[in-house]
Amino acid sequence: MNASVNWLKEYAPFDCDIHRFSEDMTMVGQKVETFKTESDKCKNVVVGKVLSISEHPHADKLVVCQIDIGNETLQICTGAHNLKVGDLIPVALDGSILPCGKEIHNGELRGVASNGMLCSIGELGFTTHDFPNAVEDGIMVLDEEYPLGTDIVKALGMDDYSVEFEITPNRPDCLSILGLAREAGAAFNVPFTAPETHFPEGEGDIKDLLKVTIHDNHCQRYSAGMIKNVRVKPSPKWMRERLRMCGVRPINNIVDITNYVMLLYGHPMHAFDYKYVNGNEINIRMAKSGEEIMTLDGVQRKLSEKMLVIADEKDPIAVAGVMGGEYSGVYEDTNMVVFESACFDGPCVRATSRMLNLRTEASGKYEKGLNPDNCLSALQMALMLVKQLDAGDIIGGYIDNYPCPRTERKVEFDFERVNKILGTDISKEEMIRILACLNMKVENNIITVPTSRYDIAKDKVTEMNDIAEEIARVYGYNKLPSTIMKGVAVAKPTEIQRFTKKVVNALLGYGFYEIETFSFYSPKNFDLLNIPADSWLRKPVVISNPLGEDTSIMRTTAVASMMEVITRNFNSRVPSLALFENAKEYWPIDGEDLPKEPEKFILGCYGTEKDFFFLKGVIEKLVWSLDIKDLRFVRNTDGGTYHPGRCADIYIGDIKIGVMGEVHPIVLSNYGVKTKVCIADINSELLFNSIEGVHQYVSLARFPALTRDIAVVCDEKVTNGEIMDVIKSSCNGKLESVKLFDIYRGSHIEDGKKSMAYSIVLRDKEATLTDKIADACIEEILNNLSKINVFLRR
User: What is the pLDDT of residue 696?
Assistant: First the structure.
């Protein structure tokens, strides 16, 4: 919506510069996108008077003029021949800048001094639509009297600002000068004065000449007035200026009146040539099958039974709310005009506009949902302007069909609740003042919401929230204290969100980089990952309208996404990398429409020192940081995606929460990665559920510890985890820690056997631990290990 600042000031006399105006209007809810003024492009051009015109001594096509600019007389040469002595014209002085981009300086033309330039309408940025009486290829002659030396910017109305507003869909009332002026009055605390309208006196009665019938409820209201003896001519300068500043091209007085009223009230109007209204009747109905209409843009359009039309006795003469028909305009031979001021259903207009692929300014306004109560005021203003501009003779009376009048909404005023919602302490009197600025009267503690604000109080549950919002935006969002809204739960992260953030921060601290990948990929990933043909992972959720085969299914395992990123980095010669993703997988459920969506932490690494044990150590540190006990790693020899001899299931107690290991060489070959890659796949929910509480403070030990090292021999198939479980279950609470520090295979060790050395720390929390007790603990450990065929190395 483009609006003239000077026009707005006529109804709300605010006094501020354009920058403050833009800022305050934006803060009150009517965002200013940009503003412009013609005065910036026109400098040092004034009104002058032609004193004399003489022939140029050295050029037949030039004349020499003496121009009075008030404080001096200038000699200027020109090639225009439409001037006469006494004409008032725009004079560009030395150093002036014109909207067309010219910069004027004193000089000579064929040996004769020329101290400036006389300007045409084109050089000032105008057309004959703006000044119909001007000569297009000559000097602009002003048709009004101005003091000599007057800045042409002021004389021609170029000192106004055109402001472009971004109007939100819920505020169709602000698609008008009056709506924005009311907002400006509230923003700057100045009175808003709406124009007074009435039906001018006329001859005869319109009802004897025209019959209007509404046949469909998609037409909410239809008002009509008529004029005769139409006198089509240019509009006055003040009207042309306002239309131009609002981005509308002036055409003639009748058309300009309808555009002027549309801008003023935000309500589209249309003028029909009465002689083309067959049968002297107007019917608002749905189009009939097979009907067509030639619209004003010269296109023959087929209509459907879902489109609302304005029809005469025979055929459609306009598409309701969109565009008039070929013969519905105003022409030079037009004698009688019907002014239409109607309100049509927004969704119906939008559907018609889309079906016809025809979007107009009128349809854009109707789509938002206009106020039918404006119809009569807009019609009255149009007829008043006809009389003021002598554009025709008024025919008495008017037609107004309004089957279901819109009613004002009533809201019980609870100012304490408003303060509670906003977290403010605004007085009741101040709230009533603000509401009055917005045309909402408060009487007996009841707020009357005008019909123009049907976006307010649609729902009884939220109606006071709407009132609070209106008060807040006028009171000033910048004045609202930074407090938590009363009566509403405090917004804070959930337990699972805090857990996820803690894991992410921990992994970042361990040197991993976080990645984020798409949740869909290609079915080819199953073969790349060497997933067995009968695995349920090969039964994904299929996307019904994929962009292509590479994005045709929802992933059942995020390991493929991690491998894609690792492959890309390896091919880019990144020597070493550690990545993780908080990924979501999609597991179909038989008989259910929606899949299960577990969240996973997928870790991946390769490069120097980033092997199986590096990744295992990261998982151990992560679990420790979450204060989770009973972490175990159990050998996994299933193969598939992972190396069968270098893979382990991850357990917390008896619950398997994931798997980790080296990627199978076949998988690496499928991806073209020529280095060892380790990946861990951890279920986020199961990891979260394993947290027993928070870290508890443990006081420093008062008694010293004793350390014992043992080396045991076992079969190759016995794992470190199995031995650690036995050691940890021994010593009756006196074991503080145990650590594997050496694995040996070689001389003095039988084939198929291995030696594993452990450092065991023992401590008694109640007394000093003696060697005798420590030796007894070691003996207990060895006895328990012997039960799984693990013996002390001799």
Answer: 73
